[in-house]
């Protein structure tokens, strides 16, 4: 019965987290439009940040509650899941074409971010200085992305953004702001419940919080990326599917992990340095090589990515990690 209780907390927290994240994007976009912010800012900042709210919520709340294994494990696990599981499944559904511009900028940045966090962790910790370095890199990435987006951003792209019925008649800045606060609180509450449930399950089944975070938490918080990427694949908008995953991985490492380290420096187990971090760098390089081949990712390569993720999880579970 105790296990059911903690499992219920985890599932309820996950549902609240994803629901609140989705509506947080809606309310934030509505507020931004009412404040007459530029479409570029809304598309590049509000929507992009909102889609990574689950990872950010779990990471920041876990850091504040001194659950450092969950804070770090969720980021590393989410990035590996984004590439191996989510991108792999999308490619199995339909091979994806990769734009040359993505290969020149975002993909190298994703690999570079993975390599950077590995180098910073060689002393078995990611301290506040490391966190500041990650955040500075994120600011540079954001400025470059913002300047680049000005050249090709079309305000009509926001015409495809569909407001849910709740927000269609909201014309008050105050009301939109209150909705944003409410759903931001929902993200925090959902993350809290997930962490409490996950830690409880880890204790009952004698599994480390790290393993729970890098697998179950990671898959759970990556569900929005899975939904968004699969929808883009069905609509045959390959750039959104790939860009969503690559952008999320950059954001998770540079921003989320940067914030986590500044709030609460993270100490690493030597096993993470020997396995999880190299695996993250390796799978990032692997997918970059796949993308560079004929500027597309084939079904065979998608199968390799999915199998790579399954092998990663099996090694974690059977290896008695911590």
Model description:
This protein has 322 residues and is mostly helical. The protein has a single domain, classed as Up-down Bundle (A middle domain of Talin 1), CATH 1.20.1420.30. The protein contains 15 helices and four strands. The protein has helices at 2-34, 39-51, 53-64, 68-93, 100-104, 106-120, 128-152, 165-168, 173-204, 209-221, 223-234, 238-263, 270-274, 276-292, 299-318, and strands spanning 96-97, 125-126, 266-267, 296-297. The strands form two sheets. A two-stranded antiparallel sheet has the order 1-4. A two-stranded antiparallel sheet has the order 2-3. Helix 4 runs antiparallel to helix 12 (238-263) and helix 6 runs antiparallel to helix 14. The chain is globular, with a radius of gyration of 19 Å. 47% of the residues are buried.
Would you identify the CATH H-level superfamily? NCX, central ion-binding region
* C-alpha end-to-end distance: 26 Å
Q: Profile the largest sheet.
A: 2 strands, antiparallel
Identify the overall geometry.
globular
Please, what is the oligomeric state? single chain
Overall SS class = mainly alpha
């Amino acid at each position: 019965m105790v296990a059911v209780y903690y499992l219920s907390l985890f599932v309820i927290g996950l549902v609240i987290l994803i629901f609140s994240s989705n509506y947080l994007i809606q309310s934030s976009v509505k507020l931004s439009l009412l404040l007459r912010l530029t479409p570029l800012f809304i598309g590049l900042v509000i929507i992009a940040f909102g889609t990574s709210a689950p990872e950010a919520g779990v990471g920041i709340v876990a850091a504040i509650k001194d659950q450092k294994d969950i804070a770090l494990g969720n980021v590393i696990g989410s990035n590996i899941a984004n590439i191996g599981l989510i991108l792999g499944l999308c490619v199995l559904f339909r091979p994806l074409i990769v734009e040359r511009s993505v290969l020149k900028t975002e993909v190298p940045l994703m690999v570079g971010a993975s390599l950077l966090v590995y180098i910073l962790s060689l002393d078995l910790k990611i301290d506040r200085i490391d966190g500041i370095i990650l955040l500075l890199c994120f600011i540079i990435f954001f400025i470059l992305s913002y300047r680049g987006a000005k050249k090709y951003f079309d305000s009509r792209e926001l015409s495809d953004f569909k407001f849910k019925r709740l927000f269609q008649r909201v014309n008050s800045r105050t009301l939109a702001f209150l909705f944003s606060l409410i759903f931001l609180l929902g993200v925090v509450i959902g993350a809290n419940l997930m962490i409490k449930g996950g830690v409880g399950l880890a204790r009952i089944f004698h599994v480390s919080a790290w393993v729970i975070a890098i697998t179950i938490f990671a898959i759970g918080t990556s569900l929005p990326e899975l939904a968004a990427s699969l929808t883009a694949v069905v609509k045959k908008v390959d750039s959104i599917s790939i860009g969503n995953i690559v952008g999320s991985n950059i954001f998770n490492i540079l921003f989320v992990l940067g914030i986590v380290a500044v709030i609460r420096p993270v100490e690493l187990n030597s096993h993470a340095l020997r396995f999880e971090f190299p695996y993250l760098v390796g799978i990032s390089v692997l997918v970059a090589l796949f993308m560079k081949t004929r500027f597309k990712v084939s079904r065979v390569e998608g199968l390799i990515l999915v199998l790579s993720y399954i092998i990663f999880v099996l090694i974690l579970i059977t290896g008695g990690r911590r």
